[in-house]
Fold each of these.
Amino acid sequence: MTGRLSLDVAIIGGGTAGCAAALHLARRGLSVALFERRTVGSQASGVNFGGVREQGRDFAELPLSRRSRRIWDELPALIGSDGEFMATGHLKLARDEDQMAVLEAFATGAADYGLAVERITGNRLRADYPWLGPKVIGATLCRSDGQANPRIVAPGFGQAARRAGAQVFEHEAVRHATRDAGGFRIETEAGRQVTAATLINVAGAWGATVAGWFGDAVPIAPRSPSMQVTEPLPYRVKVNVGVVGGDVYARQTPRGNVIFGGGQGWNDMATITSRAGETEVMAAMRRLTGILPWAGGAHVIRTWSGIEGFTPDDLPVLGSSVTTPGLLHAFGFSGHGFQLGPAVGEVLAELVLTGRSETPLAPFSIERFGGVLAASA
Ligand SMILES: Cc1cc2nc3c(=O)[nH]c(=O)nc-3n(C[C@H](O)[C@H](O)[C@H](O)COP(=O)(O)OP(=O)(O)OC[C@H]3O[C@@H](n4cnc5c(N)ncnc54)[C@H](O)[C@@H]3O)c2cc1C
């Protein structure tokens, strides 16, 4: 396939962030094309745990996360699907007093952002959540948090973007991109030559590679959270559950399967392969039965992982390039970008259209890493 395209905006990456950006830009009448190496939502956006939570985030992320949470409620109107989002609440558990202090501190600080987080201890903990194991000594509940089906969210945004007029090219990797006085020149593996006034880099774990084409240096580590799902068990856990420190997290589908994660698996960036870690699978099962003892002995029917870019401070890069006018980055979501994706798309569209965002982005500036590479040819 060959061809030439001249666009207002080109987008590299078809995860939730890229598809949401394409949707908003196309709705505003811009000519937009998105290039995805595999299929829309086939990487982190489609294989994650499905947690949609504000609780436990770095406070710097809360304004963006709060904005995204509002959009999760509006998904049916925005993309024609609710993504199976359910506001089940997120219950974060403490297994000792130090962890309880962490939960208390978050609950207090979150109030400044208008996020309600309830402390739950003692008899109420046992009465409301009788399925918790005795190692759990307390918890905090954020009722507005929840869970969704990652398999359908990014494709939902992708389909909505297409309906709004964006061109979404799947199985078409971007080989390289440069910028000159005429704008961005983008070449795909299929041989397509594209020019665009603006380029958006939402390439997930490969975001630093794309940034590097323009001399923007970001220290990204590709990691692969280890995920598992059990056979159906009696439906008990209606909230999304995590622990302080994140060494295990779980949710149960109404059909009864317990989806849980914890620890890191492995990946091979060259072949784009990821797997749950052999030892992590057993370790996460042990930690799961520490908080949900009745799940002990359940058959695990599938394990999997994905590839996600982690930054040194676990905050994303979201905003303009240091080196290249018209280049926007949004990547490095460090294991918690599924909840943020809908707002990231809106923010990117705002930046393209107005050069600024109503959401504070300073903590996500690429400049915090301070590095500029020698631009590649
Ligand atoms: C196993 C796992 C569990 C997680 N659990 C949660 C959770 O419960 N809650 C939460 O909020 N977050 C979670 N996350 C994190 C979340 O999934 C990601 O932060 C988020 O999906 C990132 O979205 P994205 O659109 O930025 O990136 P991706 O979904 O990774 O999309 C980037 C896309 O860019 C494409 N691409 C890369 N290079 C090129 C190129 N040169 N040309 C064309 N296309 C290219 C890739 O193929 C990919 O599809 C988890 C992640 C993983 C891996």
Note: The longest strand covers residues 4-12.
Amino acid sequence: MPCEMCGKEGNVLKADIEGAVLVVCNECAKFGKIISRVRAPIKNKKSESQPAKKQVQTVKRELLQLIVEDYAKVIKEAREKLGLKQQDLARKIAEKESLIQNIETEKFVPGMDLARKFERFLKIKLIEQHEESHQQKFKAKSAALTIGDMLSLKK
Ligand SMILES: [Zn+2]
């Protein structure tokens, strides 16, 4: 509630100022006689709690899928374990040999679809689910459900 004399927001009180009862701040109340203290408006309390609520809603969506950092090494090693040349692997997963080359030399980061292809064929893990750490402070249970939902959708 703003002070009726100077307009300043903050703690206000009721005061008799030259015969008029006004809601004023501590400063302006000095010009008159204080009648009663006015409670801090409830509005202030609400606006304090709102940002927190909003945060919960936005962090729910911060689930990230990332390609592992050492994807090139993981793919190369898995391929070699299977005794396949880049050319062989390319043929098996119906991609170009140059693509395999570029991926194994970290010139190209595979997208999610391609990464899944590698994962399935080479039986490796290339995709990591990441949650922003601050999200875990909130509903860990519902976040876990979100991961499950996402996986079942992608299948
Ligand atoms: Zn004032």
Note: The mean pLDDT is 81.
